[in-house]
Amino acid sequence: MHAVGLVLHPRRDAGQAVDQVLEWGAARGIEILGLAEEVDRLNCAAVAVPATDLGRRADLLVSLGGDGTMLRAMRLADRQRAPVLGVNMGKLGFLAEVDVPDLPDALSAIDSHRFSVEPRLAVDAVLGGRTVTAFNDVAVVRIPGQGSAVVAVGVAGHPFVSYAADAVIVATPTGSTAYSFSAGGPITSPAVEALLVTPAAPHSAYGRGVVLSVHDMVTLDILPTSGRLAVEVDGQVAGYVEPGDCVELRARPNAAHVVRLGRTTFYQRARRKLRLTDSPEIPPVDGEG
Predict the structure, then answer these.
(1) In 3D, which of 44, 109, 51, 114 has the Cα closest to residue 78?
(2) Which of 160, 161, 170, 224 is most buried per CB count within 10 Å?
(3) pTM for the full model?
(4) Residue 135 lies inside a defined structural domain of this protein
């Protein structure tokens, strides 16, 4: 390993974790890279590079922050060789692999090649002639004071289902535990290659979500009775659409990769971090309260 890139939360103090990575890199002759504005903010010894170079030059990206930071690191790693190690400095940190106290052990595991990499699906959306990429979800969302999101979902060139709702969310399995989950969508393992379409607060008689193949293009046609809608990409507004507009979405498998140390499974993390509980009629299994 020749170079490691750092991606930092914009506000939280990551100084201690950054120092650990810098010391680890210095002891092994590994160059530590960082985005210019983040390196300047911490005044640390990492080499400042532009965002376009970070994923290209690094053999590993270390995300220090919450899930938003992890998603940003995955976008920087998109189409690049560097996997992303997520270090949780946030509240939920669902996408992260370790917490800050576990960072030295994680770096030791990487030294001894005791880790695996897990591919992650992205979805590319064509919006106003430009393409934007999400690793969690793309959603067309009602603007307060405007009409509902009235959207026809097409699959492989054919009409499939229409919704009237506060939002229509198209999520990857990575994003199944985010906005889609809050709207009632299923928890989906990242090992599954699929797109999940979930209406939020549906007003229509049919309000169930659907699971679609990654091999089919998905279209969201904004119908004449819809209000003007915001298009959110991983929770950030990327643009707006009007009745008559169409958003085209294509799944892209293996867009980025994340580091897994094998300490917990996706199902264990989901149960713990989402605080999933069983029916009170079901006795607890051994080891559970």
Answers:
(1) 51
(2) 170
(3) 0.91
(4) yes
